[in-house]
Amino acid sequence: MSEPIHHIGVLVRDLEAAIDRWSRATGYTFSEVGRYVTDAYVDHSEADPHHHDARIAFSKEGPPHIELMEFTGEGTHSPAQGEGIHHLGFMNHPDVLGCKERLERAGVAADGMALDDAGDILLWFTDKRALDGIRLEFVSPVPQPIVMDDGRPAHRDAHGFPSLWPTD
Ligand SMILES: [Fe+2]
Question: What is the CATH classification number for the domain harbouring 85?
Answer without folding.
Answer: 3.10.180.10
